[in-house]
């Protein structure tokens, strides 16, 4: 097959790295890609929201399979766009249509969906600018802390945990009255705060059948001890020590199955990844959020553990034949440490020369915000690299990933030194 991956981050580099190993893949393209994807595929200078240009590439490169990495083109309807092109309507695509992508594209949609199908989640209410006064009154009687979420896509920054009623009221004003998150914040979901420990479960659906992929835990805050601003993810671990067989069975029975049954009942043929963000509360799973794609940096620890041919898995997803595939998973532990640009997740500089990549051994280097320029690799984003190590123990995987993070150099680099340490010390 000729395969095209849309996206430019660490997730897409991980996809490309894994698919390039498959004998089913003849030619591999990534649009727009980064310096890492260029090592295993051909980058195409096309934005992942430029649907006409993507369609032209599909035609000229004779693409057989399209894999959509990021959420934005999915929510914007890239699948619907291809279905509307007479000559491309039969293109095999991994990714849901715009309706299915609403699981991520609208927090209100996903909460209503969970309520309809009895999927365990935090109690919530949704408010708009027209119901601002009702929302403020609702907050006045809410337990603390309280979670406020922008309804739409806000690049991972649309969730605020308010510790006081005054902060919650100000946040609601900022979102609904001050357009803090633009159109994404035109609705605000106010949610009960759940106390527990977080993890992510990943499901592949072909519209009827499904496979559960390895679970992961990521680390969102910029600094050690989960302090500081939220980011797109500073590291991840898979498997997760507190997700034992009994708990994962509960996840499948109480979350995965009703989610897929709900999609089918609503006539949504969902072909792609469903990322389920969970909180384990007193041994029970509660859904925090759905995403309509794989997570990043979770992909960088999940994919190295999958031993099944990934191109075969993607093809089966697109063609409705997942029931014919067995997913084999390595028992090893994978840990990734993300290196970010100084200043991230706020203002940061690009174009810093990255050195010492060639010195890294026994880790897989996934490029995120990088660019190949004048024979060198330079920074081109907030999250720059994800360094994944695999080992027979969590301790060894943590050590190898952290050693690699210490070795890589660029001006202003920052990384967390505690990725996975909480799990080494974890006890139920």
Automatic annotation (TrEMBL):
The keyword Ligase applies. Belongs to the GARS family. This is Phosphoribosylamine--glycine ligase. Pathway: Purine metabolism; IMP biosynthesis via de novo pathway; N(1)-(5-phospho-D-ribosyl)glycinamide from 5-phospho-alpha-D-ribose 1-diphosphate: step 2/2. Pfam families: GARS_A, GARS_C, GARS_N. Keywords: ATP-binding, Ligase, Nucleotide-binding, Purine biosynthesis. GO terms for molecular function: ATP binding; metal ion binding; phosphoribosylamine-glycine ligase activity. It comes from Spirosoma terrae. PANTHER family: PHOSPHORIBOSYLAMINE--GLYCINE LIGASE (PTHR43472), PHOSPHORIBOSYLAMINE--GLYCINE LIGASE, CHLOROPLASTIC (PTHR43472:SF1). InterPro entries: ATP-grasp (IPR011761), ATP_grasp_subdomain_1 (IPR013815), PreATP-grasp_dom_sf (IPR016185), PRibGlycinamid_synth_ATP-grasp (IPR020561), PRibGlycinamide_synth (IPR000115), PRibGlycinamide_synth_C-dom (IPR020560), PRibGlycinamide_synth_C_sf (IPR037123), PRibGlycinamide_synth_N (IPR020562). One of its GO terms (biological process) is purine nucleobase biosynthetic process. It catalyses: 5-phospho-beta-D-ribosylamine + glycine + ATP = N(1)-(5-phospho-beta-D-ribosyl)glycinamide + ADP + phosphate + H(+). Residues 111-319 form the ATP-grasp domain. Its EC number is 6.3.4.13.
């Amino acid at each position: 097959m000729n395969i095209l991956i849309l996206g430019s981050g660490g997730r897409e580099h991980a996809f490309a790295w894994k698919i390039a190993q498959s004998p089913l893949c003849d030619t591999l393209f990534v649009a727009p890609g980064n310096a890492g994807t260029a090592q295993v595929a051909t980058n195409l200078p096309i934005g992942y929201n430029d649907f006409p240009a993507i369609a032209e590439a599909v035609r000229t490169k004779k693409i057989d399979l399209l894999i959509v990495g990021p959420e934005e083109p999915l929510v914007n309807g890239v699948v619907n766009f291809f279905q509307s092109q007479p000559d491309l309507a039969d293109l095999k695509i991994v990714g849901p249509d715009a309706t299915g992508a609403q699981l991520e594209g609208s927090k209100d949609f996903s909460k209503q969906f969970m309520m309809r199908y009895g999927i365990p989640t935090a109690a919530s209410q949704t408010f708009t600018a027209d119901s601002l006064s009702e929302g403020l009154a609702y907050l006045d009687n809410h337990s603390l802390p309280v979670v406020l979420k922008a309804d739409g896509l806000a690049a991972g920054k649309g969730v605020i945990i308010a510790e006081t009623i005054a902060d919650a009221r100000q946040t609601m004003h900022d979102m609904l009255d001050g357009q803090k998150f633009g159109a994404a914040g035109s609705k605000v979901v106010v949610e009960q705060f759940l106390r527990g420990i977080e993890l992510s479960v990943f499901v592949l659906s072909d519209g009827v059948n499904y496979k559960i992929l390895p679970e992961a835990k990521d680390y969102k805050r910029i600094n050690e001890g989960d302090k500081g601003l939220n980011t797109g993810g500073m590291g991840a671990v898979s498997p997760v020590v507190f997700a034992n067989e009994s708990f994962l069975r509960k996840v499948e029975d109480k979350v995965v199955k009703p989610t897929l049954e709900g999609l089918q009942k609503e006539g949504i043929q969902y072909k792609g990844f469903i990322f389920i963000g969970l909180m384990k509360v007193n041994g029970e799973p509660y859904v925090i959020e759905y995403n309509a794609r794989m997570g990043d940096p979770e992909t960088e620890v999940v994919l190295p553990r999958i031993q099944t041919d990934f191109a075969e898995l993607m093809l089966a997803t697109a063609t409705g034949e997942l029931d014919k595939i067995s997913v084999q998973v390595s028992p090893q532990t994978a840990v990734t440490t993300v290196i970010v640009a100084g200043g991230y997740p706020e203002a940061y500089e690009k174009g810093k020369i990255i050195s010492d990549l060639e010195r890294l051994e026994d880790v897989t280097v996934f490029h995120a915000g990088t660019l190949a320029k004048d024979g060198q690799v330079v920074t081109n984003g907030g999250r720059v690299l994800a360094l994944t190590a695999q080992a027979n123990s969590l301790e060894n995987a943590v050590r190898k990933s952290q050693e690699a993070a210490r070795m890589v150099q660029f001006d202003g680099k920052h990384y967390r030194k505690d990725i996975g340490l909480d799990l080494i010390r974890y006890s139920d």
